[in-house]
Design a protein that fits this description.
Layout (H helix, E strand, L loop, with lengths): L11 E7 L3 H12 L4 E4 L15 E2 L7 H8 L1 H24 L11 E4 L3 H18 L4 E4 L14 E5 L3 E2 L2 H14 L3 E3 L4 E9 L2 E8 L2 E10 L10 H4 L2 E11 L4 H7 L5 E4 L5 E5 L5 E5 L8 H18 L8 E12 L5 E5 L2 E5 L5 H16 L7 H4 L17 H14 L1
Parallel strand pairs: 1-2, 1-11, 2-8, 4-13, 11-18
Antiparallel strand pairs: 3-7, 4-6, 5-6, 9-10, 10-11, 12-15, 12-16, 13-14, 14-15, 17-18
Helix pairs in contact: 1-5, 1-9, 2-3, 3-9
The protein binds flavin-adenine dinucleotide.
Flavin-adenine dinucleotide binds next to helix 1, strand 12, strand 16 and helix 9.
Length: about 425
């Protein structure tokens, strides 16, 4: 990662961005290019959060199916959201090209595999719906042709979207940080924000932002803290459920075994609620992830998840039974109560979060869109116009006591649906 700034934060700037992941760094890049003075404040180090630890799948669509979105928000809004998801992948590709980011970005497509016959039966309807309403083509792969896509006999068929891409997320976030610095942003690491206070200075309305490296006065604040949102922005924290997601990688595989497992090198995930996602890495490891424990990453949850994921990986790919696991890690995902991304303004503070496992592309995109809005753009952002619900009955203070129940609930859903 590039080095952040030394010393105390400056006494003032136009914008403070909280969090140095995809959202914050993409916003800082855009703000810098628009001529704003911008300071990124990060509790830990650049890219420390989910942005350096994810599966690197740059995916079309959202967590919820287009049909679910259409029944909830209507067709027009769903069209805008779907178009934004496609645009966000083009945007990542454009940044990678413009900023010359070496992150193995490749339009390899994604493959969703059906864990049940009933899931596969729904694929044709989904493909027709997406072609008709969004003019976007996906392909259904019947079970007997699936071996051309994946070296596993566990699944009932698949669905391919060639538009999706893959990247090395840590290299990408490093490149975004370098791009933000090049655009003139300053990044302060180990600068946890402790308090944000509405302040008036002369005729200027703004905020005093108190950090571990001093205080600064800014006109605008953008919160880009996703699954790591704290009580500093309590009204946002109460709307976010931090959920652990975990990844293991094998040792390097031989070329022939790697090609047998994933002949077209797709980004792969299954159709369950408690899903698995997996891919080959550029250095030929199988990277296998999932929500093995719902609680965020600790030494315990990582160790337990690694054992569960290894068992699950061997169920998908018996060929990997004797293959050692070399790395295991975890990170925290940002889910909202409606499983949707959200952007907007709360208590006078801008925010973008809630990507629910689709953050590589959407966080990059929404970070930039919110930056443009801060600079005065009135362009409509679909995820900024939908209602942003909190916890049902309001009984949530940001500590997700219900996660074990949610885990059981989704496992049960996978049994019956
Ligand atoms: C294991 C895993 C796998 C995933 N796989 C995929 C995938 O394949 N594809 C995909 O699209 N998405 C995936 N995701 C989701 C994706 O990584 C996230 O949605 C995305 O990285 C969110 O980026 P962000 O910048 O909003 O937040 P983050 O990258 O999480 O950054 C937030 C930052 O805010 C900082 N922060 C928090 N509070 C403060 C404070 N008070 N002061 C200063 N700094 C603060 C934190 O230290 C953190 O660095 C995955 C996530 C995980 C955990």
């Amino acid at each position: 990662m590039p080095a952040g700034s030394g010393g105390e934060v400056p006494s003032s700037a136009d914008v403070a961005v909280i969090g140095a992941g995809f959202t914050g760094l993409s916003a800082a890049r855009t703000l810098g290019k628009r001529g704003a003075t911008v300071v990124v404040l990060e509790s830990n180090t650049i890219g420390w959060g989910a942005s350096s630890r994810n599966g690197g799948m740059v995916l079309t669509g959202l967590k919820l199916s287009p049909q679910t979105l259409a029944s909830r928000y209507g067709l027009d809004m769903t069209r805008q959201m779907y178009a934004a998801s496609l645009e966000s992948i083009d945007f990542v590709e454009q940044i990678v090209r413009e900023e010359n980011i070496d992150c193995n970005f490749s339009r390899c497509g994604h493959l969703e595999v059906a864990s049940k016959q009933s899931h596969f039966d729904s694929y044709m309807g989904a493909v027709e719906f997406i072609a008709r309403e969004f003019d976007h083509r996906l392909e259904v792969i019947p079970r007997h042709k699936l071996k051309e896509e994946i070296g596993s006999s566990l699944y009932f068929g698949g669905m391919i979207d060639e538009t999706s891409a893959g990247a090395n997320p840590a290299r990408y976030v490093r490149g975004l940080a370098t791009a933000a610095l090049r655009a003139g942003a300053a990044i302060y690491e180990n600068a946890a924000v402790r308090q944000i206070e509405h302040t008036t200075r002369g005729t200027d309305q703004g905020f005093t932002v108190r950090t571990d490296r001093g205080s600064l006065f800014v006109r605008d604040v953008l919160v880009a803290t996703s699954g790591y949102t704290t009580a500093v922005t309590q009204n946002l924290q109460k709307k976010i459920i931090p959920i652990g997601s975990f990844i293991i990688t094998t040792e390097r595989l031989s070329d022939s075994l790697a090609r047998e497992l994933s002949p077209r090198n797709r980004m792969i995930f299954d159709s369950k609620h408690y899903l698995h996602y997996y891919r080959l890495t550029p250095d030929n490891r199988m990277l296998f992830g999932g929500r093995a424990a719902f609680f965020p990453e600790t030494k315990n949850t990582i160790g337990r998840s690694a054992r569960i994921l290894r068992r699950d990986m061997v169920e998908v790919f018996p060929q990997l039974r004797g293959t050692p696991i070399e790395y295991a890690w975890g990170g925290t995902l940002d889910f909202c109560f409606d499983t949707m991304p959200h952007a907007g303004v709360i208590d006078g503070i801008h925010f973008a979060l809630g990507y629910a496992g689709h953050g590589v592309a959407l966080a990059t995109y929404l970070g930039a869109k919110m930056a443009e809005r801060i600079c005065g753009s009135r362009e409509e952002i679909p995820y900024a116009t939908i209602p942003f619900p909190g916890a049902p009955l309001g009984i949530y203070n940001g500590r997700p006591w219900f996660l074990p129940f949610a885990g059981v609930y989704y496992k049960a859903l996978d049994w019956i649906s």
